């Protein structure tokens, strides 16, 4: 929790980013009661901009349908971050399940917003989000509009890697777009230095 000893955590985060031991960071609004717009998050955003690396923001409800946490990570707050920090790459983790359509409509025109697929093939997420076909359609629509802004994720070991691969492979998109999702977009976004 960066808020407990913020100065020490920011120094540590700076060192980890500088030495390339990490290639971005993740915030968990909803796990803890804070919004992404909380001023205490600003040093994190500024460091990510300085190093040209993304911040991943947890979104959606938690298991057991805890909708209370979603009020903290609603994409409407993430949009404010993207507007305030246009050079910051923001990854929306879990596509704000189960309200994936809402997330897409709200964020589709913001180029600095990315999406990861983590958790999207989980049976609980699929059921709560309208089923496999609906999730597939939302992903297809997103990839067709923003082919460079979707990165593969699974939320392993909680979720199945195989099911997430199957979800991406089921998309009616080009193999080139699938290659981007599976690796190329992440290599570029996280500056992994893999040719």
From TrEMBL:
The residue ranges of the Amidohydrolase-related domain are 11-192
| InterPro entries per UniProt | ACMSD (IPR032465), Amidohydro-rel (IPR006680), Metal_Hydrolase (IPR032466)
The entry's keywords:
Lyase
Pfam families reported for this sequence: Amidohydro_2
Keyword Lyase (UniProt)? yes
GO MF terms here are: carboxy-lyase activity; hydrolase activity
Is Lyase one of the keywords UniProt gives this record? yes
Protein's recorded name = Amidohydrolase-related domain-containing protein
């Amino acid at each position: 929790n960066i808020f407990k000893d913020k100065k020490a955590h920011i120094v540590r985060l700076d060192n980890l980013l500088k030495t390339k031991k990490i290639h971005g960071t993740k915030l968990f609004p909803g796990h803890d009661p804070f919004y992404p717009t909380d001023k205490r998050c600003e040093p994190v955003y500024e460091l990510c901009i300085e190093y040209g690396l993304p911040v991943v923001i947890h979104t959606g409800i938690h298991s057991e349908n805890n909708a209370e946490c979603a009020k903290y990570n609603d994409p409407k707050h993430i949009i404010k971050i993207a507007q305030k920090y246009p050079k910051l790459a923001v990854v929306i983790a879990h596509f704000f399940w189960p309200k994936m359509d809402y997330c897409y409509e709200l964020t589709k025109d913001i180029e600095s917003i990315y999406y990861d697929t983590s958790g999207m093939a989980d049976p609980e997420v699929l059921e709560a989000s309208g089923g496999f076909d609906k999730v597939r359609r939302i992903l297809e629509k997103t990839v067709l509009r923003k082919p460079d802004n979707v990165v593969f994720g699974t939320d392993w070991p909680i979720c199945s890697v195989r099911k997430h691969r199957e979800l991406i492979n089921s998309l009616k998109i080009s193999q080139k777009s699938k290659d981007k999702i599976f690796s190329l977009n992440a290599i570029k976004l996280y500056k992994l230095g893999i040719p």
